[in-house]
Q: What sequence folds into this?
């Protein structure tokens, strides 16, 4: 699910450990989050279709070193933008290249961990 598209409501449900474990196992087997699995069961039971409610995805966990690297990328892109605005094309391209050299390995690393 797109993190910027948060669902607007939360329903707190108390469960036994056994039921919680079975839901977690079923969700893993289906390749979705526990919440998405439960939402899909509710949609099925009610005969509804809702893309936002069906969406699933693990929240990305970004390692501290990756967070620092990405912060550096943002700075490099800021420098590139400023350099480009004042006509310093060489500096802009160099800053974008430095950003790319960090961004590509970090993003590829995300894909490997997913």
A:
């Amino acid at each position: 699910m797109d993190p910027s598209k948060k669902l607007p409501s939360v329903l707190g449900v108390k469960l036994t450990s056994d039921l919680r474990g079975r839901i977690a196992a079923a969700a893993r087997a289906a390749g979705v989050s526990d919440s998405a699995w439960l939402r899909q069961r509710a949609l099925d039971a009610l005969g509804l279709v809702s893309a936002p409610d069906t969406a699933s995805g693990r929240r990305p966990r970004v390692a501290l070193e990756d967070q620092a690297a990405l912060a550096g990328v943002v700075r490099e892109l800021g420098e590139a933008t400023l350099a480009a605005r004042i006509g310093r094309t060489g500096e802009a391209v160099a800053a974008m290249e430095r950003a790319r050299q960090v961004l590509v390995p970090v993003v590829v690393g995300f894909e490997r961990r997913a």
The chain has a mean pLDDT of 85. Helices lie at 17-30, 34-46, 51-54, 64-85, 89-113. The CA atoms of residues 60 and 109 lie 12 Å apart. The chain has five helices and no strands.
